[in-house]
Amino acid sequence: MFHCQSLAAYHVVSPASPVRDKHTDMRTYYKVVAPKLLSDFERFHFWHGVSDDPPQLVWRSDVDTNPFPVPAPGARFFKIAAKTAEGVSNTPLNPVWPIVAPLIVALFKSRGIKYSALKAVRFSTCDDNGKKTLGPIVLWIATHPGKCTPEQARDASPHILEILREHGVNGAVTQWYEGTVQKLASLLRVTNSTNPTHHVRRTLTPALGLPLATAEREADDAQGSLGFYFHQNKDKKGEDSKRVFGVTCDHVLRANTKVDYEFAGMGSGAPRYVRVCGYRRFQQTLVETNDLIAMNLEDAIRLATDITGLETQERSADEEQAEDDERALTSNRDKLEMLKEDNTILEKHLKDVTTNWAILSARNVGHVDWAPKIAVDIDEHRYTRDFGTFELDPLKFKPNFIGNVVDLGAFCSLSLIGHLSANYNIFRL
Questions:
Q1: Which residues, including other chains, have CB under 8 Å from residue 308's CB and lie 6 or more apart?
Q2: 413 and 308, same structural domain?
Q3: Residue 193 domain-assigned?
Q4: Which one of 187, 330, 364, 417 is most buried, counting C-beta atoms within 10 A?
Q5: Residue 318: which residues within 8 A CB-CB, separation 6 or more?
Q6: Whole-structure pTM over 0.90, yes or no?
Q7: What strands, in cross-sheet order, belong to the sheet with 84-86?
Q8: Are residues 57 and 92 in the same domain?
Q9: What Rg value do the Cα atoms of the chain yield, rounded?
């Protein structure tokens, strides 16, 4: 749906040029003009920060009690605080969610509202000093595009909030947007070398050496690769764990490598997402695939020309030459058919990759879990410690995961082995 991350603390816009739509009427951009229920300015900018391309707001239940700030007349620049979506752990909603969620869904059905997703979040913002303010519980509701009007969302919201109040959840709000649910693709299968996509798909398979980047360092074009996988034996409570991790360099995972980092949990803030392929490497993958298709096409044209020549020439009186020409004709026909099949497979592969992986958030395959600061004074050997771990997203990895077996002693210092060996096993699925 939408990956939630912390972007710039503020978004600065010029009230003189709010270019989100070429048809925007500047006279009404900041105003609520009937029959609209919200201003265009609020619709476009309300969720600034929650993703690279946040959705447009359809309706929110606190529009009257919590007005969205707009630039003052004559202002040259105006700051819009960036929002970060966070979890709702340790709130009154958690224990009653299994009860209230079905009731809300039933309400949608009774009102003919076609919904795509029903989620609970809290949005936080930071001021100029970095102080965070956490907002109320939000029922974040996605509806099928064009299937729910702002009026329907407005009229349904009081009934939704009443359901929550009846179960002890007070002060919550509803926020609505349009969105479709799409199944995120898992990493690709590792194929035999005879598969025409074998070479160009390698950057999107879970094999060791998987190219990695992070949302945090995307603008710096910082990229690296995966070293190995391991499985956690026990969690912090001593219970069996199903978590699987990848290892790469600390400087690949984050910009500030002078302090230790440890992820506190999904309810503690926006996770630092790890992506397969940064922008540059993904574009290179597309170029390589297109180049391979073009090369095959050139070979196909050459073979078709040779086949036409062999088919139209007179049969040689020399039997050996005639047999050689016949073998060449048969071979070229087989090669041409194979090239046609290869390009059909490659074109489908290119379409699937473009559809499933071009969006940045679709390439998120996990989040940074633990990354100690870079150091050279860990032990008497004074090796450089520069590594970090990220937890794998099972939906991305498990369908085509092949695992690995690695001797840790061959790849890292004793201090790393000491930490990992007490808590982890090399992972093989």
A1: none
A2: no
A3: no
A4: 187
A5: none
A6: no
A7: 57-60, 173-178, 132-143, 115-126, 84-86
A8: yes
A9: 28
Q: What pLDDT sits at residue 183?
A: 67
DSSP 379: S
Amino acid (one-letter) located at 255? A
How far apart CA 170 and CA 91 sit, in angstroms, is 10
**Is 86 domain-assigned?**
yes
Same domain as 264, residue 118: no
pLDDT value of position 277: 92
Q: Which domain holds residue 84?
A: 10-178
Q: What is the pLDDT of residue 28?
A: 66
d(CA 138, CA 88): 9
pLDDT of the residue at 54: 85
Return d(Cα 230, Cα 337) in angstroms, integer.
Answer: 44
* Same domain, residue pair 416 and 379: yes
Domain presence at residue 62: yes
Residue 399, token pair as written in the block: 């369908």
Structural domain includes residue 4: no
Which residues of the chain fall below pLDDT 50? 1-23, 405-429
**Distinct helix (H) and strand (E) counts, the chain:** 8, 16
Angstrom CA distances, 226 to 6, 210, 223, 252, 388, stand at 24, 5, 10, 10, 10
- Tokens 């503690």, residue? 268
| Separation of alpha carbons 389 and 366, rounded Å | 10
Rounded CA separation 414/408 (Å): 9
